Amino acid sequence: MPPKRFSLDEKAEIAKHIDLEQDVPSTPQWRAQERKVVKKLDMTLMPTVWILYLFNYLDRNNIAQARLNSFEEDLGLVGNNFNTAVSILNVGYMLAQLPYNMILTRVRPHLYLPLCAALWSCVSASTAATHSYNGLIAVRFVLGIVEAPFFPGAFYVMSCWYTRKELALRTAVLYSGLVLATAFSGLIAAGVFAGLDGVSGLPGWRWLFILEGAGSFAAAVIAMFVMPDYPESKTGSGKWLFSEEERKFAAGRIARDRVSQPEADRSVWYGLRLAAKDYRTWAFSFLPLGRVIVTHLRLPGFNNFYPSIVKGFHLGSTTKTLLLTAPPYLIGAAVSFLVAYSSDHRKERGFHISVPMAVAMIGFIISVATLNVPARYFASFLYTSGCFSANAMVYTWAASTLNQTPEKRACATAMINLLSQLGNIWSPYFFPASDAPRYTMAMLLMLGFSVISIGCCVVMKMSLRRSNEKLREEAEESGREVVLFTL
Questions:
Q1: Which region is the signal sequence (predicted)?
Q2: Phi/psi at 163 (nearest 5 deg)?
Q3: Which of 133, 160, 302, 365 falls 20 to 30 Å from 410 in CA-CA distance?
């Protein structure tokens, strides 16, 4: 059932209010109302999507920890079987990504996203019942399909509520769910393997899939009662969380924040055409393609091999190895918050992507240049922090640029995320066991594509700067104020 939205008369009243009171945002009353709305969102929407995203990656990447138990032996995996099992999830993910986000603009997110979470929880837990390579491939493919809606869907809902000055930090918070899932997955696995391996005749890796699947299912049920729909919707938690005046205010402030472009048809298919025809959509898609070999080798492709890399440091037992995978991700989360805060405060995106990528490049160079264990472990802090920080900024920048209509924004962000998954399909094959412990090929590829990502940032800033100059010229001719693109 579609969300109950404001009527045409109500939308007209909101538009009238926006047109006639351009100075409202500068008043203390407006700022107080804004703080009230944002606080309610930060107490409901953000914790909900954060917890679900954390479980999204726990359920997706627990295969990496399972590998350090008897996973491969029990399923008879040989050669590149494990790499293929990692890669196949992204095939299903890519096939379902765009259709899911097109549907999202016409359904109730407070039901749609949690139901998808409940489905992926069941599918992930069913991995514990597999006994062969073929069964594992089938489960991983389906898992990709049911997980596909969540990240672009959650980000789209956030972009419908938060303005550009607020979105980068909230995106970093959302992304920290991924970071902490990666960090704590090793700690959780260490506890499960130490305490449950062999209990009821099941190896530890089967218990890992069962317990994490059960946890994410419980979180999905709770999310149905906490997540709001859209500002103009009278469904979800918004019906008790916000008053009618607050919903209109929330819709109005998002309308004010949209870059000054002509209004367009609100149909989903027209939004798709707008996204496909805008060259910036493809530029942003290419930027993650360059970045994703770096960042998505880390997230999630590289994550599937990081425990194995740390194990190659020969720092101790499997439990110690899993524990030592956590610190780089925790530091990466903290750095990404600082970068996102700076980006929102300075209203700048391009340098906040390219500078962290340059830091990541230093880490890749160190990893290739030496086999010294302390140096390589330090390098993992550099490329983890750099890649995580850059990753959150890309989607924030794209959402604020490709926002002519909500449907265009939904389709464009889905297309960018979809194409970025190509890196996840390729990445498992960049880490053959024969390259351990240095993984020279993977590190050099990540280094090269980091350069491409930085180049894309420079090109995008130049393009948006030219567009802003045109908007200023139009503003001088028409005598009206305009909202510019964020550089």
A1: none
A2: -80, 175
A3: 302
Overall average pLDDT of the 121-133 stretch: 93
- Using CA atoms, how far residue 269 sits from 106, 145, 272, 464, in Å, is 12, 22, 5, 26
Residue 262: exposed, middle, or buried by beta-carbon count in 10 A (0-12, 13-18, 19+)?
Answer: exposed
Which residues 6+ apart lie within 8 Å of 479 measured at CB? none
Answer yes or no: are the C-beta atoms of 167 and 400 closer than 8 Å.
yes
Distance CA 322, CA 59 (A): 17
Domains of the chain, CATH where assigned: 8-478 (1.20.1250.20)
What is the 3 state secondary structure string of the chain?
Answer: CCCCECCHHHHHHHHHHHHHCCCHHHCHHHHHHHHHHHHHHHHHHHHHHHHHHHHHHHHHHHHHHHCCCCHHHHHCCCCCHHHHHHHHHHHHHHHHHHHHHHHHCCCCHHHHHHHHHHHHHHHHHHHHHCCCHHHHHHHHHHHHHHHCCHHHHHHHHHHHHCCHHHHHHHHHHHHHHHHHHHHHHHHHHHHHHHHHCCHHHCCHHHHHHHHHHHHHHHHHHHHHHHCECCCCECCECHHHHCCHHHHHHHHHHHHHHCCCCCCCCCCHHHHHHHHHHCHHHHHHHHHHHHHHHHHHHHHHHHHHCHHHHHHCCCCCCHHHHHHHCHHHHHHHHHHHHHHHHHHHHHCCCHHHHHHHHHHHHHHHHHHHHCCCHHHHHHHHHHHHHHHHHHHHHHHHHHHHHCCCCHHHHHHHHHHHHHHHCHHHHHHHHHCCHHHCCCCHHHHHHHHHHHHHHHHHHHHHHHHHHHHHHHHHHHHHHHCCCCCCCCC
**What's the pLDDT at 114?**
94
pLDDT at residue 22 in the model: 43
Q: What is the pLDDT of residues 166-200, one digit of tens each?
A: 888 888 888 888 777 777 777 788 888 888 888 88
- Write out the two tokens for 79: 């050669």
Identify which of 109, 105, 111, 67 has the alpha carbon closest to the alpha carbon of residue 86: 67
Mean predicted lDDT score pLDDT of the chain: 79
- Do 108 and 207 meet the contact criterion of CB atoms below 8 Å apart? no
Q: Which of 54-68, 78-92, 308-322, 464-478 has the lowest mean pLDDT?
A: 308-322
Q: Are 159 and 167 in contact (CB under 8 A)?
A: yes
Residue 233 β-bridge partners: 5
CB contact at 8 A, 327 and 186: no
Please say whether the beta carbons of 196 and 204 come within 8 A.
yes
Give the global pTM: 0.79
* For range 66-94, the mean pLDDT: 85
Check: CB of residue 389 under 8 Å from CB of residue 295: no
